[in-house]
Amino acid sequence: MSEQNTGLIEGADGRMRCFWHANLPDYMAYHDREWGRPVADDRRLFEKLCLEGFQSGLSWLTILRKRENFREAFDDFDFERVARFTERDIERLLGNPGIVRHGGKIRSTINNARRAIELAEEAGSLAAYFWRHEPQPEERPERLDYATLRTLGKTDASIRISKDLKKRGWTFVGPTTVYAFMQAMGLVNDHIEGCAVRAEVEAERARFQRPR
């Protein structure tokens, strides 16, 4: 079957993987080592949700290749520090050619840092909040093939999270952005059936201690 039918491509190592990394070395490393593996670190969760907001209208590869610049610019996404950013910081960030210089998204990141402090205080941690929204097995497709994956731009779970975050004052957290965050942070395993790392990721999810 062709890549268009299976959603899989063969790498130079002979392993079949999800098509989207396009055999680009840095993108393949992200696919193999990060995407879909469960995360419970609040700073990394905050980072990914912010970067998904920056990615809106762009490719994730663009953001991935600027990620270290973003980390430097936003104090490694320590949301307690980002929450204290001022107009001077915004001007500094708007002049930084290493990141996406979008005023609305920069201001959103600062706003969301303040909302993250509130949410962590209420829920105990960002991880506890997000993982309590992990989809139940009955909410997931029985088999994740390429055709099914293409229907999952947003789900009931991502819509629920998006609505709740927006009520709490978060911005740039639409349901599609939230679902991409869920895929990356391991709240779901969207590696396609037949992908060489799908079973490995699923085993890691099975061992993962959900935050409470």
TrEMBL record:
Specify whether Phosphoprotein is a keyword of the entry: no
- Supply the SUPFAM superfamilies for this chain: DNA-glycosylase (SSF48150)
Gene3D superfamilies in the record:
Hypothetical protein, domain 2 (1.10.340.30)
Q: Record-annotated residues binding Zn(2+)?
A: C18, H31, H191, C195
Keywords of the record, alphabetical order, are: Metal-binding, Zinc
Sequence intervals crossing the membrane: none
Q: Per its record, how is this protein called by name?
A: DNA-3-methyladenine glycosylase I
